[in-house]
Amino acid sequence: MGKLLSNFRTTILLSLALAVGMILAFGQVSGGFGEIFWQAALRWVHVVAGILWIGLLYYFNFVQIRIMPNIPAEMKPAIGKHIAPEALFWFRWAALVTVVAGFGVMLTRGHVYAAEVMSFGFAGGLTEDQKGFTLMGVGTWLAIIMFLNVWGIIWPNQKRALGIVPAEDDVKAKAARIAMLASRTNLLLSLPMLTSMAMYQTLFG
Q: Is the pTM here over 0.85, yes or no?
C-alpha cells in the first residue's frame, strides 16, 4: 500500500476508478442511466473540477502570493520555474472543465431552466417563485467572469511574469502585478459564487 500511495498517478487513477465504480452503482440503484443519471454524473465532474480550481485559487492567494516576498531570492526560481507553472496548468484546465460541466448540468435540466438562470429569472417574467433563479444566475455569471479572468488575464500575464514567454524585466513586473490583481479579483468573487451554488442547490434543488 505504501508503494502504491507513493506514486501520484497510480493513486489518482485508482481513486478515479473507485469513483467511477460508485457512479455506475448509483446508476443501478437509482433506476437506470437516464437523463437524471447523466445530470448527476456531470454535477460530479463539475464539483471535482471546481474543488481543484478553487483550491488552487486559494493556494495562490492564501499561500504563494503572500509568502513569496519572504522567500530568499536564491530560492524563488524553484517556485517560478517548477511549482507555479505546474499549479497554473491544473488551475486553468480545472477552470475550463468546471465551467463546461456546469453548463452541461444546466442544459440537462432543460432549456427553460438554462434560460431562467442565465437571465437572472427574467426569461419568463420575474415572479416571486422565480427569484431563486436570480441568485443562481448571479453565481453562474460570477463563475463565468472568474473563468474569463483565468484564461484572458491571469494565464497570459503569468506566462510573461514567469518567463514562459520572453519579456523584459519591467514587462514581467507589470504582468506579475496584473496577474496578482486578477487572482485577487477571483478570490473576492469566489465566496459569493460558492454561496450561490451551495445555497441554491440546497434550498431549491
A: yes
